[in-house]
Design a protein that fits this description.
3 domains, 480 residues, alpha+beta, Arc Repressor Mutant, subunit A, three-stranded antiparallel sheet
Length: 480
Amino acid sequence: MTQQYEAVIGLEIHVELKTNTKIFCNSTTEFGGDPNTHVCPVCLGLPGTLPVLNKKVVEYAVRAALALNCSVANFSKFDRKNYYYPDLPKNYQISQYDLPIAEHGYLDIEVDGQTKRIGITRLHMEEDAGKLVHQGNIVSTPYSLVDYNRTGVPLIEIVSEPDMRSPEEARAYAEKLRAIIQYTGVSDCRMEEGSLRCDANVSVRPVGQKEFGTKTEIKNLNSFRALQRALAYEIERQIAVLEAGDRVVQETRTWDETRGITLSMRSKEQAHDYRYFPDPDLVPLVLDNQYIDFIRQSLPELPDQRRARYMDDYGLPAYDANILTLTKEMSDYFEEVLKDYDNPKTVSNWMMGEMTRLLNANGIDITECKIRPGQLADMLNLVDKGTISIKIAKTVFEEMFNTGKDAEAIVKEKGLVQISDAGAIAAVVDEVIAANPKSVEDFRAGKEKAIGFLVGQVMRATKGKANPELVNKLLREKLQ
């Protein structure tokens, strides 16, 4: 982005609620299944059917709204959003328009060490549409198939204020929002399954200008990386259009992950184009303050609270606390390990180091990890007892990751028990000193680094099994 322009970004995030049944009928919300098998006359919009609101959807929506610091409305209603698209069997979507269930929230993000508050305009309930299965690229597909299994799955749509000024801020906001929603337990927020989907509205304007520029909406963003890349591309595209003397067209665009570009889909509709009107089949929703307060009091510990606890109670650095609380699964895993191994910083180091490295290399998240929290605790206890060294522990950990076996079993199978017998190590130390006179001379001349080389030679000779502290001690004694 050039210094002459600034971006203005707002996000619309749709979250599928993990209720057992759909928002207005008893069809299952289970992910997967053969196409068009999780449907019934109500969610298919067949003549003569009537919707009945799922009480759990309301509870989950209120829970999410309170976690996002929103004001929950005592009175809200459902509206029909009218438009034609093949994945919408009724030709309208039941949503909320002018009287949503919640408004005026916020969350705080941190980018480059700076904290910023991002406003949340509204949170409302609605039903999901079906899914079009394109036979190729969405723009050039020769035909598409439709699966109505997702039709009627309950959603909350969370609309931010246009407070973000960079792709990095937008990504931080989306990741923070996902974490908060996960902690509340109302959704698993799995982007790969479509239970969290993000649309981005973005415009650019000359620095110092108060009026917004013409915005475009980017759809088809199925990862936080895609969100950040798509915004970066679209910002540069809009700046290039303006600098060429043209004007940006208000439209909906899609993100092409393979080519790394956004593509035009259709002109952007205005709200009046949807011909909203109150749904005549659903009565208004009235919530009393006692109900809202009951849900407020039942909220679990949220990411910011847990992050503060990790710093205050465990003495973890802010960086560690941020990483560990970014997803509920990672944080819960950390908590489980601590039940059997009471050293938070050591656990944090292993989870952010070896654990994250192997998860990323295998393209999985911690819920798919074969190492159970208790197994990691057992391995760390073996290190503390001196049974294995840190170096051997890394080998053991990788084997545990690949096989799910216990650390003790792997150590026995592979003969990895650490050598702590001073006599056995002393013999190897003597051999290394005799074989490396130059390093010995360097150390005696005051070159401290030479001792590191000699320790490495002993560890190599013992295949990493020698106790490193004992090796260091014996070397210094013999050289001095």
